[in-house]
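Here is the promised in-class demo. Please do not try to memorize the tokens; focus on the logic of going from shape to residues.
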């Protein structure tokens, strides 16, 4: 099964520890009656339990990755909301949606004296056929229709039971490992670098990057530099230079277009940064390193395959 990547939110973990159940959102969804709107709770997973069958197109996994989805009533799916997948279904459906912040799963791991869960073993858009989830959500249906105060304590226990089951069944908590003090956990560093690499052309603010990794901006910036040896901005600059060098070596694109594709404001910006980092202008570097046409790859392959040396 595929592993849904995650990022850990230490700040939210501390905030959620007072009452983890309050951080878990649960809604009955009937898309025939109202549009589907998922709450914005930061890094979280979606557990969608189908109350009726579904046959139709749906976006699963990466945004825009549409395919035919056939689900039975009672099917359960798990998606990582911070990766952009929100199980957008093209036809009406009836389901229970449970949104569990990663901060709650962190608390469950801490209580189990385990390391933070790095990801869930669940394939996007695939029915997990989990009887425990089916029974727990079935028990939630009645109190969902009752008054808020009468149902809240009962629902709180059910929500925590569901989150605990998901953490243990699909997260498989492992013994705690000591990490470098002050730095990012290895999986968070990889996550941050992947996000930076995917946004070379458009750029990414430090606030957005820190949020995607579930950390405060100040904490993230300090921890990233301690783990990577450079700031996020310096890491991205190096990645852009590396991508530009690959394009200059492997394509015949003009420097102005390469500058745009690699996230530089214009050709003069590329030239200035490149000369500062490499010691010579990009045109001179290109003459010395250009490959033959037979070895050229497409631009998309170049951008996706390179990173800082």
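The designed amino acids, position by position:
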């Amino acid at each position: 099964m595929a592993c849904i990547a995650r990022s850990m939110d230490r700040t939210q973990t501390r905030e959620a520890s007072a009452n983890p159940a309050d951080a878990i959102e649960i809604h009955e969804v009937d898309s025939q009656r109202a549009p589907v709107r998922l709450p914005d709770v930061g890094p979280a997973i979606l557990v969608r339990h189908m109350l009726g069958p579904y046959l139709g197109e749906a976006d699963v996994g990466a945004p825009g990755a549409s395919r035919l989805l056939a689900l039975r009533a009672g099917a359960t799916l798990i998606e990582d909301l911070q990766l952009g997948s929100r199980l957008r279904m093209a036809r009406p459906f009836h389901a229970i949606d449970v949104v569990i912040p990663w901060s709650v799963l962190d608390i469950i791991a801490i209580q189990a004296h385990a390391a933070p869960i790095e990801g869930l073993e669940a394939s996007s858009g695939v029915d997990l056929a989990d009887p425990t989830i089916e029974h727990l959500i079935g028990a939630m249906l009645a109190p969902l229709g009752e008054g808020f105060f009468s149902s809240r304590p009962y629902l709180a226990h059910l929500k925590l039971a569901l989150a605990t089951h998901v953490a243990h069944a699909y997260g498989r908590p492992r013994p705690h490992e000591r990490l470098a003090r002050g730095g990012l956990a290895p999986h968070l560093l990889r996550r941050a670098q992947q996000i930076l690499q995917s946004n070379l052309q458009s750029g990414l603010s430090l606030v957005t990057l820190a949020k995607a990794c579930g950390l405060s901006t100040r904490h993230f910036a300090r921890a990233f530099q301690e783990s990577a040896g450079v700031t996020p901005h310096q890491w991205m600059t190096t990645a852009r230079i590396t991508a530009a060098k690959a394009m200059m070596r492997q394509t015949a694109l003009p420097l102005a277009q390469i500058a745009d594709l690699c996230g530089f404001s214009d050709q003069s910006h590329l030239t200035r940064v490149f000369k500062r980092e490499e010691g010579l202008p990009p045109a001179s570097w290109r003459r010395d390193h250009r490959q033959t046409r037979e070895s050229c790859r497409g631009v998309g392959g170049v951008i996706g395959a390179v990173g800082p040396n």
